[in-house]
Design a protein that fits this description.
alpha/beta; Spore Coat Polysaccharide Biosynthesis Protein SpsA, Chain A; about 290 residues; about 15% strand; three-stranded mixed beta sheet; seven-stranded mixed beta sheet
Amino acid sequence: MNKFKTTQKSDELKIVCMKWGKLFSSEDVNKLYRGIVHHTSIKYKFYCITEDAEGLDKGIMPLPLKPHKILDKLSVNRGPWKKLLMFSKDLYGLKGRLLFLDIDVVITGDIKDLLEGTDRDKFYVRKDFVRGDINKDSNKKPRLGDVGNTSTYLMPIGKYHSILEKFEENYESILKKYTTAEQEYVIDSIFEKGDLRWLDFDKIVSFKSHCKPRFPFNLLLPPREISSSIIVVFHGYPKSWWIYEDKNSIKLQRFKDFLGRYMRNPRWYKVYKLLYKFSYYPRWLKKVYAIVKD
């Protein structure tokens, strides 16, 4: 832990992701890191909080995932509540400003542009995605009940430690109130402090909501590139790593468990499989991934 205290610089952005369990591999983290390396022009250090650092690229600084008596007991189906560890009072001795990224986001532009016009002492997050919101005013004041997408956020390290502490004291009532994921709890807590700000809507976009055409046009037209984007978020389905696979050999079995909850009749699954065969990834996104593949 001490080496992180001695090597970091206060003006360096700390970019942090978390990896636990089997959903993501070290190679997935490497792809995120390589995207940052390729696109980012400012000083930064890249950290991965994980229980297994084997296979991470040399430039990634691993931090050990600490056990937590409450968060460790929560089922994955409750959502990624372990991300609340980012609000620890002492985050491995790190100081300054932090950019948190989910592992499955895709970097398409310079992180420097994401920081432009932001206040170092406030919490910035992308408002939850709504189709057609890209050109709307992201400077609009947040309101009570607004939800942010915590796949990407900026904050001063250690300032909001009360979020984790409050959860530890009242986790049963909090889990009862916030049934879907941790982001609703986090955003409401930041809003109460008056520090909630939105990141530019046109810089962080959703592949599903903004890039892919609506059904049935998505069966004929490829997802569009949004030139202003810095980060493309893959929430729900499809998954970002499917880009690596040829459009005619996409492993649709990954959908099997998900679809099985809603489509018990196997004939419906066959219909969905046939339709998805015509939904493919565009060249612009494959070029982005070609940068980070090796």
